[in-house]
Amino acid sequence: MNTQSNRNLVVGAFRRQRYNLADVALVAAAILTLIFGEYYLALAAMVVIMAIFALSLDLAQGYGGVESLGHAAFFGVGAYAAALYALHVSSEPISGLLVGAIAAGLAGLLSGFAVLRTQGLTQLMLTLAVASLLYELANVAKSITNGDDGLTGYDVDPVLGLFQFDIFGFTGFVYACVVLLLVYALLKKLVNASIGQTAQGIRENQIRMRMLGVPVERRLWLLYTISAAIAGIAGALSAQINRIVGLDSLAFTLSANVLVMLALGGPGRLYGAIFGAILFVLLSDRAAAIDPTNWLAVLGIVLILIVRYAPDGLAGLVSRTVGKRSAK
């Protein structure tokens, strides 16, 4: 590896995430959707939920290098926790979000002890095993989760006691956007702090970071727990806005989908996770509407093109394009 390659590796490992035009474009897109997309707000809310979920995976995988095929485990735990809280304790939505985050964070905390002791294929299989185990538990505990029929019958109070969830999805979309904004700001702060910077170094070279005195296992464990909690927030939002939680919230399909979102958008750049979620959900919706049988082929073709011509995702493509124009 030559000197220039080493330099690029170091710069990439410790890239600081600043607010930029991509962030402004995302805010503008949300405002325009709210103004002109009144008939698509339910779909837009799902886009926002998936964006939060993709951000959670980006934190663990894009920054910490933790491979996962079972991130839906935390989405599902958060969703079921929020739904059960609304059903048996309180219908207040903000506290429900916190319950979902705490429950998923605990799941990440406990599973991280096993998952983070391994690397590579073993780590992938362990994350898949955790998600599969939780899926089977939810399926067996029908008296609690209602199994295949889905958990329903709970109400969600107006947000802050003022904004009632409506059938048009206006409140749900705004509520989800506010949560996304807060999560995004938190993650920007986190990845620029010492934990985020060292996590990127751990992703590139664990041995070197250990030699520098960084507690690698503890840093990854903390990052993984935070990632799980954010995935739980996404699951709790889904439960509150859709008023139903099914076994699909723990399924492998959801874990695979969020991996595709991250691949499309580009790992290691927070706005890339959001780009990927937007592209995946909207493309899936339109392709399924046009051809309900073969719509997955469209996603496959797009993914192949992205991997071939933009291996670091849409965010990387945008970054390179802007960089070339700035250099001229």
TrEMBL record:
<dbReference type="InterPro" id="IPR001851">
    <property type="entry name" value="ABC_transp_permease"/>
</dbReference>
<feature type="transmembrane region" description="Helical">
    <location>
        <begin position="94"/>
        <end position="116"/>
    </location>
</feature>
<keyword id="KW-1003">Cell membrane</keyword>
<feature type="transmembrane region" description="Helical">
    <location>
        <begin position="295"/>
        <end position="318"/>
    </location>
</feature>
<keyword id="KW-0812">Transmembrane</keyword>
<feature type="transmembrane region" description="Helical">
    <location>
        <begin position="161"/>
        <end position="187"/>
    </location>
</feature>
<protein>
    <submittedName>
        <fullName>Branched-chain amino acid ABC transporter permease</fullName>
    </submittedName>
</protein>
<feature type="transmembrane region" description="Helical">
    <location>
        <begin position="270"/>
        <end position="289"/>
    </location>
</feature>
<keyword id="KW-0472">Membrane</keyword>
<feature type="transmembrane region" description="Helical">
    <location>
        <begin position="220"/>
        <end position="238"/>
    </location>
</feature>
<keyword id="KW-1133">Transmembrane helix</keyword>
<feature type="transmembrane region" description="Helical">
    <location>
        <begin position="21"/>
        <end position="37"/>
    </location>
</feature>
<feature type="transmembrane region" description="Helical">
    <location>
        <begin position="72"/>
        <end position="88"/>
    </location>
</feature>
<dbReference type="Pfam" id="PF02653">
    <property type="entry name" value="BPD_transp_2"/>
</dbReference>
<dbReference type="InterPro" id="IPR043428">
    <property type="entry name" value="LivM-like"/>
</dbReference>
